[in-house]
Amino acid sequence: MNLKQRFGQESSLLRLHYKENNLPSxxxxxxxxxxxxxxxxYVAVCIGTDRSTGDALGPLTGMYFQTYKPRHIRVYxxxxxxxxxxxxxxxxxxxxxxHNNPFIIAIDACLGRxxxxxxxxxxxxxxxxxxxxxxxxxxxxxxxxxxxxNVSGFMEHSILQNTRLSxxxxxxxxxxxxxxxxxxxxxxxxxxxxxxxxxEKSNPEII
Length: 207
Hints:
Layout: H1 3-7, E1 13-17, H2 23-32, E2 42-46, H3 57-67, E3 73-76, H4 88-98, E4 103-112, E5 119-123, E6 143-151, H5 156-161, H6 165-185, H7 191-202
Parallel strand pairs: 2-3, 2-4, 4-6
Antiparallel strand pairs: 1-5, 5-6
């Protein structure tokens, strides 16, 4: 059964467990349907902090993805330079100042049901960071990737602090893999169309 049969090519949400085989490739195929046809400046905003194990998903993802040396996606938010609740608005102002009409992929950790722990969710909508901790922060992104790192409930700040680092690291590597595959796709995904257009222009059909 192919990806289209399982999830629907036009679906605005895709959810997979981080141990799913070929997760980066599957999610990349799905996400690329949401990208704008006309090229734009691409930005990944990896939200979170290294001061909390569960909330480190974003910064770890940013760190792993940055070591890949992406050619088309600019990374904001790493372990050494995190984007978090305190500096989020300032970071967004900087991004919109440096990038012309950027297409933003927002990455963050989240809490959910016990049966959802370990799932990576991508949606064709912006991310609302800080909801787990009842913080009001600006929405981020054209599309979002979130990882369910632990169960929601009471004392959610404490829950994030007591999340297993090994799981968060493994999930971050998978999310980085998604971004890596997207970056690779951006090198050639629209080239066939361009080539075809050039061929049609140079060899017009004779009627």
